[in-house]
Amino acid sequence: xxxxxxxxxxxxxxxxxxxxxxxxxxxxxxxxxxxxxxxxxxxxxxxxxxxxxxxxxxxxxxxxxxxxxxxxxxxxxxxxxxxxxxxxxxxxxxxxxxxxxxxxxxxxxxxxxxxxxxxxxxxxxxxxxxxxxxxxxxxxxxxxxxxxxxxxxxxxxxxxxxxxxxxxxxxxxxxxxxxxxxxxxxxxxxxxxxxxxxxxxxxxxxxxxxxxxxxxxxxxxxxxxxxxxxxxxxxxxxxxxxxxxxxxxxxxxxxxxxxxxxxxxxxxxxxxxxxxxxxxxxxxxxxxxxxxxxxxxxxxxxxxxxxxxxxxxxxxxxxxxxxxxxxxxxxxxxxxxxxxxxxxxxxxxxxxxxxxxxxxxxxxxxxxxxxxxxxxxxxxxxxxxxx
Length: 387
Prior knowledge:
Blueprint lengths: L3 E8 L4 E4 L2 H6 L4 E7 L2 E2 L7 E2 L5 H8 E2 L2 E6 L4 E3 L3 E4 L2 E4 L11 H7 L4 E4 L3 E5 L3 E11 L8 H18 L4 E5 L5 H7 L7 E4 L4 E11 L3 E2 L2 E2 L2 H5 L12 E5 L13 H10 L3 E3 L6 H8 L2 E7 L15 E7 L6 H9 L3 E8 L11 H6 L1 E2 L2 H13 L4
Parallel strand pairs: 1-10, 2-3, 5-23, 13-14, 13-16, 14-15, 19-20, 19-21, 21-22, 22-23
Antiparallel strand pairs: 1-12, 3-7, 4-6, 7-16, 8-9, 8-16, 9-10, 11-12, 17-18, 23-24
């Protein structure tokens, strides 16, 4: 018979006690504590170019706020259910969206682990616990989240959070999702030893530890803490040159391109000396090595463009996406990597074949991009590019 767990809910921030430094955080042995390793801030970004209408107000709102970066500790029989259902002293601690932008939404929690979440109300939660239970002796830091099956989330969320932990708590064991096959290679590429890394399936396993650490995100919405300025260049130790132009296509992915006129768009980029690349089929070594040579990266919105974290400062980036998608993570990456980043917005269109199964977000991404807008955007960004 499957074991059930019913617990009260309360906001994490209501119970956490602030610590002045790492020694003070480590000295806490009961309750919940936190250490701020970088304060929050604000910025005002301007895209290098913007085609397809006026610059969206959502661009400014989603790239303005820079998050406070914190490390939390849970000290009373802590356990983790699903994608960061944190239970401490028999209470589910609700995560704040400002700290955990990819793990705080209850809808995401229930959708990612439907067999685990039985009931959620404003003040209580009931779980059906899986049979598998992983207990880590001593200190453990957990970094599971929505989307940790995706390459891009490892680049912009998971690995940067590990870097923060390793800087402040170098000896703690780290628990991450096993969902992304090349995760181990990505960590090794970033110089992170696998000796103290545990991979597990959060949808099927309860994780517990004697003491649990949880780092907040270095990203809030589409903006990154200034810490990312130092972290992203350490994701690879390869030399970074600037001698190739890359266009990242999604035509070879299972769902195909999000651009209804992808062939026309790719021909425009080919005329301007871009290589058409499909990095999702490549090894980690080939992806990192290729993007380390880029002087200009363009393509459809998604994980492939986030490979610009492996490129040199000054690399140009041009993102093509639907006007129905208010996601500008690439602008946030560009801000901390000193990579001028522009956008071409296409007109959102209906799926050509209604019978094809697509998520709402996938349908929002379908669009037709004006090749004239693409040409003008390239002219804008190539005009001041180094020879």
